[in-house]
Amino acid sequence: MVISPASRSPASRSVFSEGQQIRRLLVKREQTLFMQVLMFSEYLEGLRGLTQYDAHGPEEDWKRLDETEGQQQRATRGEPRV
């Protein structure tokens, strides 16, 4: 059985109102925490991507970058791929 707020005493309406406010604040706090966790997990994904890229060492990264740039330059000059 549900009792409507109008049939309650003023004291119980006050407690009910405070409970509603607390519930709204808790929901808002839960949403804020969820967004913070989501943003932090995206940040960690970005870091993981950086560490995976560098896992084989910076020398390999530079070598691969040089090869890619060389291929792009040859392509713009119309030279065949090697």
Sheet of most strands: none
Order of helices and strands: HH
Structure summary, number of beta strands? 0
What is the CA–CA distance across the termini?
Answer: 81 Å
Strand content: under 5%
Please explain how this structure is put together.
With 82 residues, the chain is an all-alpha fold. The chain has a domain at 51-82. Helix content is 78%, strand content 0%. It has helices spanning 10-53, 58-77. The longest helix is centred in the middle third of the chain and has 44 residues, at 10-53. The mean pLDDT is 76. This is (African queen) hypothetical protein. Residues 61-82 are annotated as: Disordered.
Q: What is this structure's SSE topology?
A:
Elements lengths: L9 H44 L4 H20 L5
How would you describe this structure in keywords?
82 residues, mainly alpha, (African queen) hypothetical protein, 0% strand, single chain
Give the structure's gist in a few sentences:
The chain has 82 residues and is mainly alpha-helical. It has two helices and no strands. The model has no long low-confidence stretch (mean pLDDT 76).
